[in-house]
Amino acid sequence: MPKYPDGGVYILKIKLETEKEIKIGALGKKIFSPGYYFYAGTAQRNLKARIERHYSSDKKFHWHIDYFLAESELEADFYFELPGEGECFLAQILKENGGKTPVSGFGASDCSCGSHLIYFSEAAGSKIVEELINDKNVEKEFNEFSK
After folding, report:
1. What is the pTM of this model?
2. What are phi and psi of 36, to 5 degrees?
3. Could you tell me the residue ranges of all domains in the chain?
4. Which band of pLDDT confidence, cut at 50, 70 and 90, is reported for residue 117?
5. Could you read off the pLDDT of 20-64 as tens digits, one per residue?
6. What is the dihedral of CA 102, 146, 43, 53, to 10 degrees?
7. 87 by DSSP, 3-state: which?
8. Measuring CA to CA, which residue among 27, 121, 16 is closest to residue 71?
9. C-beta separation of 91 from 112 below 8 A
10. Distinct helix (H) and strand (E) counts, the chain
11. How far apart are the C-alpha atoms of 128 and 95, rounded to whole Å?
């Protein structure tokens, strides 16, 4: 694993091979199409532990993402040294670049941005985050976003 800062925001890159109906805690059963899903989250302390938890299959389900990860494959994670509002910013960037919101309220019960889970088809999602990171200065754009 890479050397993570103590706190920040992150994106999880998750692949779902086939269409599945998954119960997402209090949100209930939802049908998810095959493709790539990106989850924007925050851990302002102990970022490494939070990301390691996402990779673990031995955990109690606490967050919406826990239910989804139990039925899908976590391929990669990307982190940024941004404050907590950065998770909404990352979700917004993904939506602005063609991502769709498959489940309203997913991972966003403590904010007003709608959803922190963003969907792309397999073809579009395979390299989207890597391309965005290479094309953008995320920290600079966040400063503009948060003004």
Report:
1. 0.92
2. -105, 140
3. 8-145
4. very high
5. 999 999 999 999 999 999 999 999 999 999 999 999 999 999 999
6. 30
7. helix
8. 16
9. no
10. 6, 6
11. 11
DSSP result, 14-69: EEE-S-EEEE-GGG-EEEE-SEEEEEEEEESS-HHHHHHHHH-SSS---SHHHHHH
Separation in Å, CA 43 to CA 50, 54, 68, 109, 129: 7, 12, 19, 15, 19
Is a pLDDT exceeding 80 seen at residue 135? Answer: no
CB 119 within 8 A of CB 99: yes
* Bridge-based pairing state of the strands 117-120 and 35-43: antiparallel
Q: Could you tell me the sign of the dihedral formed by the alpha carbons of 46, 50, 56, 57, in that order?
A: positive
| 3-state secondary structure at position 142 | helix
